[in-house]
Amino acid sequence: MKRIALALSALLLVAAGDPATETEHTVTEGETLGGIANRAGVAPGVIAAANGLVEPYAVRVGQVLVIPRQRTHTVKAGETGFAIAMDYGVPFELVAVANGLEPPYAIRVGQKLIIPAYSDREVPVAPVRDTPYFRPPHDGVQLLGFQRRPDGTGHEGIDYAVKPGDMVRAAASGRVVYAQTDSGRFGPLVVLDHGNGWRTRYGHLARVTVKLGDMVKAGERVGIAGQGGNATRPELHFDILKDNVPVDPAGKLSGGSGK
Ligand SMILES: [Zn+2]
């Protein structure tokens, strides 16, 4: 009897799965989508899309979530995003979300596309999200928040206190559309494009660690924090733009930076 009990508990342990490799996850007490995504190493937006979750992304105990594991595909001449997605048997919407692609979904030869793994298990149709899921780029204390005055002046984002050398992380998956060692006011600056007119900017860096055109996943490093440009102390300037207009990040950020 004891032997059977031991064997059973070993089976249960195996069934519980390793967060780094599991392709399905059963939600337990106290878990959030952000926490599950962090442990799985998969962007929360990708998990949300794969499971048809909509904001505010509430998950319930016992719910089985598909965890889309990612592969990459290097685009060859003549390929289209739709054809590549079809080859991998993955809905194109998931490929678009994972890579921050937006209409008309242009891709270029040599581009590395993230191919989210996809289970054939019946899941609700993934809604096409037009707002990315943003998380803080750094865990530092907020030095200055978003301010908008009637005359259009103010502060277009959040300044975080940093220690020089800290990692600065992508708030959401996207493509690097600006990576300069000196942009003036912000010094070394990175701008990510997340599709549908959404962009995030990371300024006052000590160093940029991505190149123009790179695809980065949410939580990946885009630069090293410092005191670049006109910063008077070590800080990170972070802002979120929609169609080039700054929006208050406070209402858009959720969860930790994944540190
Ligand atoms: Zn600032």
Notes on the protein architecture:
- The chain is 18% helix and 28% strand.
- With 259 residues, it is of the alpha+beta class.
- A hairpin with a 5-residue loop joins strand 6 (147-148) and strand 7 (154-155).
- The longest helix is centred in the first third of the chain and has 15 residues, at 2-16.
- The radius of gyration is 20 Å and the shape is globular.
- Mean pLDDT is 84; it is low at 6-16 and 122-126.
- The structure holds zinc ion (ZN).
Quickly list its features.
259 residues, Membrane-bound Lytic Murein Transglycosylase D, Chain A, Glucose Permease (Domain IIA), 18% helix, 28% strand, binds zinc ion
* CATH homology group of the largest domain: LysM domain
Q: Please state the average pLDDT score.
A: 84
CATH architectural category of the largest domain:
Roll
Structural class: alpha+beta
The end-to-end span amounts to 45 Å
Give the CATH topology of the largest domain: Membrane-bound Lytic Murein Transglycosylase D, Chain A
Number of strands: 17
Q: Spans of 5+ residues with little confidence (pLDDT < 50)?
A: 6-16, 122-126
Estimated share of beta-strand residues: 25-35%
Helix and strand sequence: HEHHEEHHEEEEEEEEEEEEEE
Largest sheet: 8 strands, antiparallel
Concise summary:
This protein has helices spanning 2-16, 33-40, 44-50, 81-88, 92-99, and strands at residues 24-26, 64-66, 70-74, 112-116, 142-144, 147-148, 154-155, 158-161, 167-169, 174-180, 189-195, 198-203, 205-208, 215-216, 221-225, 235-242, 245-247. The protein is α+β, with helices and mostly antiparallel strands and 259 residues long.
